[in-house]
Amino acid sequence: MDNAGNPEAGRMPSQARRNAKGTARRRRWVMYGTGVAVLASLIAAFWPRPVPVETALVTRGPLATHVVEEGRTRIRNRYVIAAPVSGYLNRVELSTGGKVHAGKTTLATIQAPPSGLLDPRTRAEAEARVEVTEAVKRQRESDLGRARATLQFAQREFARIDVLERQGGVPRREWEDAETRVRVLEKEVVSAEQALRASEFEVRQARATLAQVSSTEPTGATVLRITAPIDGVVLNVFEESARVVTAGTPIMEIGDTRDLEVEVDLLSSDAAAVAPGAEVSVEHWGGTVPLRGRVRLVEPGGFTKVSALGVEEQRVTVHIAIMDSVPPGNTLGDRFRVETRIATWRGENVLQVPVGALFRRGDDWMVFAVDGGRARLARVETGHGNGVFAEVLSGLKERDSVILYPPDSVTDGIRVSPRPGEVR
Predict the structure, then answer these.
(1) At residue 226, what are phi and psi to the nearest 5 degrees?
(2) The pLDDT value given to residue 111
(3) For residue 189, how many C-alpha atoms fall within 13 Å in the half-sphere facing its CB?
(4) In this model, does residue 276 exceed pLDDT 80?
(5) How would residue 87 be classed by pLDDT, with cut points 50, 70 and 90?
(6) N or C: which end of the chain has fewer CB within 10 A?
(7) Angle at which helices 172-213 and 120-166 cross, to 10°
(8) Is the Cβ–Cβ distance between 322 and 291 less than 8 Å?
(9) Please, which pLDDT band fits residue 117 given cuts at 50, 70 and 90?
């Protein structure tokens, strides 16, 4: 069949060729696109991803360091009631825990022999006892005068600081320290007054005993009545049964449970950093709220103590005054176990970093700081620390972001990604 006269027949092959070329072109583009997608997927799969990390900010604020150690409560002024003369001690009716009232409660009675039968030695002992009790009384008077003078000075100083604090001239912290010092010294004055009253009672008792043994006229057996020198409770009864006792025999021990302090035996290395007046938190004493305290005295001498592991340690006893009253419903008595947290240093506006960001490299402390999404290794110089935060002396500035507990995968310059919500 001749197609020369049919123009449509001539165009069909050329159209088919064009369609074939278009199809081939589309296939090439599909292949190119697929290759690019595969390549992009491979690149994305093997491209280093940012390491997820936990971060924190370097901040400024108060920072304090503490020494934590177990201690025990102790009644500051304990009074041992002893037989003033030799004689027959009647059975003691009081028991441990019994309440006593100054000048009213009879603690014990002693049937002394007739005065005419007492020898010169007994009289000499009675005279010596009067001299000793009078010397103790003079010492107590001196202690009370010194305590009152110190309190008056502290009160004047507190009044001055109070005015300055109201005007913004001193920080609140200084005002609190001055106020607490006044409260501590007030307790010292109360304790000194109690000690003086007890010594006055002992003087009267010693003089009465001397008058009884110095009588030149023979008399029958005299019953000596020993009354309580202070308000308090019976702590221990040493002689409960009736029997013959000699002068000076301890009968019982009494004290005021409101006059408590805490004794703590610190390692000498820790005690060297503790100063009188340091803040103390008394914890785990049996109540839910810690009691505030202040260091009253760091004893000048230490002693050797063997630890549970058999290691000899040098210890120093620290005396702590309890500032807060025991809440109603709780009891805190003599020789109760407590845990103390003693402040050894405190700063108000301290540049600090979480200790979880610090790690050792040689002799230096290092951190990984986050800069532009990458971890940068930085050397820092630290000062005081409390186990949670450490003082920063150099190497970081406020608001710097650091990596907490950096994993082994974190190296200098690697890309990191803070976990959402963990920057603090």
Answers:
(1) -100, 120
(2) 86
(3) 16
(4) yes
(5) confident
(6) N
(7) 160
(8) yes
(9) very low
3-state DSSP assignment of residue 97: coil
pLDDT in tens, 387-399: 899 999 999 999 9
Q: What phi and psi values does residue 57 have, to the nearest 5 degrees? A: -100, 145
Asked if 57 and 400 touch (Cβ cutoff 8 Å), the reply is: yes
Structural domain span for residue 168: 114-220
Q: What confidence category does residue 171 fall into, taking pLDDT thresholds of 50, 70 and 90?
A: confident
Q: Which of 105-119, 167-181, 339-353, 403-417 has the lowest mean pLDDT?
A: 105-119
Same domain, 145 and 198: yes
In angstroms, rounded to a whole number, what is the distance separating the alpha carbons of residues 62 and 257? 36
Rounded CA separation 245/88 (Å): 6
Residues 165/175, Cβ–Cβ less than 8 Å: yes
Does residue 236 belong to any structural domain of this protein? no
Amino acid type, 101: H
- Distance separating alpha carbons of residues 88 and 239, to the nearest angstrom: 12
Tokens of 123: 């009289």
What are the Cα distances from residue 211, in Å, to 41, 64, 126, 206, 227? 111, 60, 9, 9, 17
Q: Give me the residue label for tokens 């005015």.
A: 163
pLDDT at 153 over 70: yes
The one-letter amino acid code at 396 reads L
Query: Can you say whether residue 152 is alpha, beta or left, with left for phi > 0 and alpha for psi between -120 and 50 degrees?
Result: alpha
The answer to whether residue 91 is domain-embedded is: no
Domain count, the chain: 4
**What are φ and ψ of residue 254, in 5° steps?**
-130, 160
> From its phi and psi, is residue 5 left (phi > 0), alpha (psi between -120 and 50) or beta?
alpha
Query: Which of 308, 335, 125 has the alpha carbon at shortest distance from 209?
Result: 125
Reported confidence tier of residue 326, pLDDT bands at 50, 70, 90: confident
CATH of the domain at 296: 2.40.30.170
Domain assignment of residue 128, yes or no: yes
* pLDDT score recorded for residue 339: 95
How many other CB atoms are there within 10 angstroms of residue 237's CB atom? 20
Q: How far, in Å, are 61, 212, 381 from residue 273 at the CA level?
A: 22, 55, 21
Res 19: pLDDT? 65
Beta partners for 312?
A: 306
Query: Is residue 332 located within the same domain as residue 357?
Result: no
Residue 80 belongs to some domain of the structure: no
